[in-house]
Amino acid sequence: MATSPGSKNEKSELPVDQGWAWVIVVGQFVNVFLMVGLAKSMGIFMEAFKQYFDTTTALASMVMAAAAVVYAFVGPVCLLLGERFGVRPIVMFGGFIGCLGISLSSLLVTMDFVIIFFGIGFGIGNSTIYGNGLVMLGTYFIKRRTLANGLALSGSSIGQFAMPPIIQLLLNKFGLSGAVLLIGGLYFHITLFSSFFRPMSYYTSRLAKKQNGVGGEKMEKLLNENVPADQDGSVFPVGGHDNEDDGPVDKMDNDKRYTSYMASTGSICLTPVETLTPVETLPADANDKFTEPVIPKKQNFCTHLFDLSILRNYICIFNIIFGFFSFFGYFNFILFLPSHAISIGIMKYEMTWLVSACGIGDLCGRLFLGYFGDLNLIQRYKLETICLMSVGVNTLMFAFADRFWWMMIHSVFYGLFGGGYVCMTAVVLIDMIGLKLMPKMLAILLLVQGIGAALGQPFLGWIYDKTGSYQVVMFVCGSSCVGSAILLAFWPIVKRLEQRRQDRLTEMKFSQRQELIVD
Question: What CATH number is given to the structural domain containing 46?
Fold first, then answer.
């Protein structure tokens, strides 16, 4: 479509792929740095809480378990609130709540008090960050969206590298209460950097004013061509020429409008808006060959968040089971690594560098294995299977490693293959179920993964309390990853079973339509 020089000038004034868009990247980088860095370092705090309150490992692990439960249930809600009220106020509010909860927990009244304020406050704050921040990146970037997401989400790996020694330093200098209070103040930086999340409507309104009263039509045309139509850009058009780097999005129709959804791995997934509320069809007349569309009833809040109808799909059930056990083994292990290292005589500062080594490996894995997956030299689900199997094997080897250098080697490889597993998860999920079912699947998958993390930490803590050995914990986490990798290898069989089910449904619908025509 041809555009006038004036229209091109108007587009250049919008910070799409330029200018303030890179400030958005900085803001999301810092937010993810603090969110993931603190989450992956909670094992250090868990050991400190255990010693301070002289409590069980199961109870001390409930801090992160509470945060995981809140994240699982509140995360989808915060995405909807971001669409309704704007991303910036929601994320800023989440950062404030997280800061308040963590800071109040520094009073260290009881372990239950810490669980409530630290766990729930941290969970609410995290729920507002990830998805809403990615929506902002999707708003401000089109041609360079892949690069922007990669730079912003690299904050998770760098945060996992930097936060453990910082936390240990604070614990040594200021004690547990002072360290928690300072971490609460550090978390408040999420509120500060989220203030950078300026809505795109700020620029569109300024451009409209420059049109001297005749810019309404031009601005409407500009919005339809280049920028999000929603107040904060959660819904936006996708043009084929602007999506060179977006994988499956390349093949989408230019005249459709898409909404963005966040995967637990940090990937943005897009789906046509019209697929969110499907139109039901019912026969208007038995003599009519074609049916009349019927507008569905308005969905309630829970139905909008979690569409359980996808549980009839074998592939979706397969992904839910796989997602639960793979995340159970992968995520929970890192929380018990510090305690395991101390139990075999590793010094505290050396213990923190084990967690940091996982972060360095994670960054390398996301970059190199993610790039290798895009070369299509091997089917992506097979690559994810290899990565997850390697994660499981390295986790099992921690049960035998009794030297710092030996544990350091496995920490790097755990991070390397874990980063590959994480960056491949969302892409493989799209390959399996397609973009149409992705939004519905993601909401349930986030919930399942959150439950896996929430149940896993007190369960593994209970195992240690009963056995007195973290080696059993390593075996459980490693076996969970290995079992998930074996399960993923059976994906082609599940695909054939689902195809047969779809064929049966198609035959049944065809038979019913033929009966209606005959009648």
Answer: 1.20.1250.20
Instruction: Please give the structure tokens belonging to residue 360.
Output: 């360095």
The structure tokens listed for 247 are: 């994988």
CA distance 467 to 438: 41
The 10 Å Cβ neighbour count of residue 186 is 18
Helices (H) and strands (E) in the chain, counts: 19, 5
In a domain, 123, yes or no: yes
* Cβ neighbours of 468 (radius 10 Å): 10
Residue 399 dihedral angles phi and psi, to the nearest 5°: -70, -20
Which amino acid appears at position 90 of this protein?
I
Q: Look at residue 503 and tell me if it is in a domain.
A: no
What is the reported pLDDT for 103? 95
Of 112, 136, 188, the C-alpha closest to 25 is 136
Dist CA 59 CA 40 (whole Å): 18
Angle at 158 between CA 78 and CA 171, to 5 degrees: 90
In the predicted model, residues of the chain with pLDDT beneath 50 are 1-8, 214-215, 220, 223-298
Question: Can you give the pLDDT at residue 9?
Answer: 52
For residues 427 and 373, is the Cβ–Cβ distance under 8 A? Answer: yes
- The CA radius of gyration of the chain, in Å to the nearest whole number, is 24
Q: How many residues does the chain have?
A: 519
Whole-angstrom distance, CA of residue 254 vs CA of residue 380: 27
pLDDT tens-digit series, residues 92-132:
999 999 999 999 999 999 999 999 999 999 999 998 888 78
pLDDT at 212: 52
- Give residue 373's identity as a one-letter amino acid code: G
Domain count, the chain: 1
Pairing type for strands 235-237 and 257-262 reads antiparallel
**Sign of the dihedral defined by the CA atoms of residues 198, 203, 209, 213, in that order:** negative
- Tens of pLDDT, residues 261-290: 444 333 444 444 444 434 333 333 434 433
Q: Please report whether residue 142 resides in a domain.
A: yes
Give the pair of three-digit tokens for residue 121: 């406050």
pLDDT (0 to 100) of residue 146: 66
Q: What is the pLDDT of residue 279?
A: 36
Please give the span between the terminal C-alpha atoms of the chain, in angstroms, as a whole number: 49
Range(s) of the domain holding residue 464? 21-197+310-488
Q: Within a domain: residue 335?
A: yes
